[in-house]
Predict the 3D structure of the following.
Amino acid sequence: MAVDYGLSLGFAASNLVVALLLTQFVAFPAALAFGWLGRRIGARKGIFIALSVYVSATVYAYFLEGVRDFFVLAVIVGLVQGGIQSLSRSYFGRLVPRASRPSSSASTT
């Protein structure tokens, strides 16, 4: 969706590729940082922090004016995307009752 949004704003395709790469390069260390944050304050609080950053990013995206702002938005998304995915998956895994979890030693027939 970021590419479609950038194209609708008239940005060059090369700038959109740079923004996508920028997001990926920022996302990996940020995901590690969110893992640390989740251990320190808990996954639920980390998810709420990431969601508040996403709400702020949405407001920021509404007022975008140039390619520089688009790159800033790419960094903001990269900072929370990997972290919220990993925290939400681990949090959901803890919510599933043990009886519903598949057994690792179950045989397939």
The mean pLDDT is 86. The CA atoms of residues 25 and 83 lie 13 Å apart.
